[in-house]
């Protein structure tokens, strides 16, 4: 039986073990996420893990902010769960894709949720987040 210390880390996106799920895309030398949904899940995990570098690297240059200042949110915002509601296109061979999701989080202990329809594009075999419409 494994101790809690030896237990494998769960992926913030809810897809299983971190190293077998989003963790395989978060490493500096990792392959790119193979689909819009995989990129969206890995970006949720990056928010949960405070990985501003990954978020900026996977944000399309046409809409990417200069910085996100995630350090200011550390200890205040806690990302809890992700639910993918629908995906349109966004697979290998597609030029674009849409992923609609609900992200649950807490701010100062108060439960909140973010529902967004995100747009992604694929350039040179790499998916990028372009923009999202919050509803």
Automatic annotation (TrEMBL):
Domain YchJ-like middle NTF2-like: 35-132
Pfam families associated with the record: YchJ_M-like (PF17775)
SUPFAM superfamilies named in the record: NTF2-like
Top-level taxon: Bacteria
UniProt protein name: YchJ-like middle NTF2-like domain-containing protein
Species the sequence originates in: Chromobacterium subtsugae
